[in-house]
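So, can you check this record?

>
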Amino acid sequence: MITLNLPKANILLSRKEGQVFVHCLIRKKSILLTPEEWVRQHVVSFLLVEKRYPLSLMKLEMHLKLNGLVRRPDIVVYNNIGIPMVIVECKASNVNINQQTFEQIAQYNIKLQVPYLMVSNGINHYYCKANFESKQTTFIKEIPKYENL
């Protein structure tokens, strides 16, 4: 897998029947290693180690119903009383982040109403803060550490 523009992560890989799997700390099982999963696991590590987000308050690929369709945000982080605070959309490192990516995460946020958004392909990372009173979303330098959410 490609080296990402994220801190080095302690990721456990295994091989089974010719395929490579990654151990997911959140789902507590081995997941087939795809380029997007490689990014997702590095982002989880970044949130855990650098931003001090508790693993127990992160959900991966949760089911979300939007306009009758089931959608799955890559990562949703909750505060300690169960309110969603951050949505992260991960793409494989060879996928360009574009307007469609931001529209995708914005659709999730119509339902979840979180203040912080992150989009990453492991190379490029974008952070936004949503203000629901002014109905504006602005780019910010980084997402806050967990204790500052």
In short: The two ends are 32 Å apart (CA to CA). The chain has two helices and eleven strands. The longest strand covers residues 84-90.
